Amino acid sequence: MTLLIIAIVASLYIAWSIGSNDVANSMGTSVAAESLSFRQAVIIAGVFNFLGAVLVGARVVNTIRKGIINPNFFADNPSLLVYGMISALLAAAMWITLATYLRMPVSTTHSIVGAIVGFGLITVGITGIKWSVILSIVLGWMISPLLGALISFVIFNIIRYKVLATEAPLLSFKKIGPIFVGLTGVILTLAVIHTGMRNLQLKLPLLTILGIALAVAGVFGLGGYLFLRRYTPKSSVQTEEVEELSKPLQVMSASYEAFAHGSNDVANVVGPVAAVFSIIATHTVDMKTTVPIWMLAIGGVGLVIGIATWGRRVMETIGKRITEITPTRGFAAEFSAATTVLLCSCLGLPVSTTHVSVGTVMGVGFARGMAALNLRVIRNIILSWLLTLPVAAGLCGLIFKIMVKISP
What we know:
- It is a single chain.
- This protein is mainly alpha-helical.
- The protein contains 13 helices and two strands; from the N terminus they run ααβααααααβααααα.
């Protein structure tokens, strides 16, 4: 029972740390562009993270995240796996807390993976680690930010040259705006369906999914067309009007990202705890364990507390310190992030939303030239990515040794 209480406390700690760091993925650019105030961002992020965690949270997760270590290695001594899971939670949470203090956005999933690698190296050795999984993660570091940067670079240049640089930006936006509204509807619908169907283990025919997405796109596009046609300018500066009209789309995409974050990353919080609970209850090692709704709720509450208390730190890095963000640039970044995550998920590529979000913000900045990017901040962010696996692994190994030594 003591170990279970420790595991629950550790899960709340990592949930808090994840909320404080990862909120920047969805809300950083919205706050920077003044589409949302910090308080509004905290409320929206908190609500959608909690709903994503509880309503569409992963019901079945691997006890060893991403299958890095086979639990059968610990069949003769299940308590070692319990110590390893608790150590992984604490080590990942400590690294994320340090990164948040330094205002660096890091991948929470990769932190968990790195921690489990450290635990695995001590217990089963090099040969017991699935290095192919580690390789795929490293490839994800490179592929996802570059892909996100490329998409956001293209999207923002379309907005820049087809709207902002024209003689009549507002008129141009009224023509092209409904298309972007419709595309936003398509991407968000496909992404939500993909996340929901995967986590709830449901399947819909491809034609049905495409039909739903196109229907939503039609409704979104028509709504955008009717609104823009009747819109009365409030300012004589048309570019300011375009920026103002971009804010609702940015808030919409940010809300989706918060929902998706809650539904996906809550498994990082409660998965190891569910494993600990299963091992303590059965005294056996099981490959998979069901995550009850109350554990998902605990994870969701922890995420919300992290968002509300320390969310501003990393939010400022993504939203303000990489490049200057306006509503149109923020929309381009968030739309591209959702698109990139969806594409990579469909292709089966393991990606980090954190890496994608940073990449899309960099792409928007690069569209305005290298001078628009804060290269020192980007260097520090990349360094924090490279340190995630080894630092989390080292911390976990240290904590695991201490737990084993002091255990009765």
